[in-house]
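Readers of this paper often ask what the protein records in our data store actually look like. Such a record has a labelled line for the sequence and another for the backbone structure tokens. Nothing more is needed to write down the fold, since each code stands for a local backbone conformation. The record that follows is passed on verbatim for readers who wish to inspect the format.
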Amino acid sequence: MFARRWLVAALLPLVVTAGALVGVSAPAEAEARPPIFGRVTDGSTGKPLRNIKVLLFDASFGYVLQTKVRPNGVYQLSSPGPGSYHLQFIDGRPAYDTKAYAARLDVRIHVGDSAVQKNVRLRRGGAIGGSVKVKGKRAANAHIRAISNGGQVIMVDANKRGEYALGGLAKDDYRVYAYDARNRRVGKSKLVRSVKLGSFRNASFNLKTRPATIRGFLTVAGARARGTVYVTAVNKKTGEYWVQKVSAGNLSLRGLTPGPYRLEVPDTGGYFGGSFKIGTLRAGSKRNVTIDLGTRGGTFSGQAVNDSTGAPIPNISVRLTDSQGRVLDEHPSGQDGTFRIGGSVRQQAGMTVTVFAYSTIQEVTYSPKVITDLSVLDNQDVGLGVVRMTPV
């Protein structure tokens, strides 16, 4: 139901040679995809750890891949190539395990032409625990979410007695929220300051406030949104958020704490999403809303033909790039040579459409045709007419 973020681990000085640690080539040996490797150990005892997940992200925190450490604490990843990357080391035990190791969000590394070794030590994290009640009665399976000042989000469900624990917490301040699984009552969050590694802090809840509800429809150009879409309701006063699945355009979010809200809707059905103000929800209130997405990206269309014969060219590639040369869309023309490209690109200038063939088409090879200095406008199609391709 809820969105999720992860954290990571601390750096450790190098302790062994590359070859001795994981059997990879020596660091001096250049490789096309230099490996990233190291050992994960307990920060107090130095013993190797297991059940630790290692995630690799690029310089912009785009996910690349992940692995698990071996029983001897060793891990190895293949980098996409030279560049700057971020590593994350995460204890794989459940969030309620109070013996879990704390992780940190960012272990930075730089990959050159050879293997990179990065060892880390993890320490037992802090923990927050307590009980959740609804009007004095234990709230079975209540939902608990903790958000650190640094952006870490950890979630867990209480047991049948309403008891919960959140382990593996890094040193930080935490805002803790509790929600009744049956959506009968909600309550105020609690700020737990200065959670330290290896410590335990109590935060218990007695939920008394009636929750609010948002219901209605998500439409695209006036019609019910098809398929499945995930929207996020954000309480602008408290920062709480709920991620809800919307099927066939039916919008229903329950168990919300009172306050001013906005709905974050992703791009859907080729139309742009956005942030929509809902207004202030009072305790026990039900707000009926209809969110209509009416703006879509502009497109470019045309028909590719053989300049010598005038015959349409099927399956020739069409690529759309922005002013910086980034590829935004690419797909082949139809059997009659017609194409339409774009649709999810926001309004901008300096676009380029390139029509080209990766290989021969019907035993003919064509020189690329490049059409530059184009502008894409929301909800509009720009016709490029007949694009005549010169056979080689």
In short: The two ends are 56 Å apart (CA to CA).
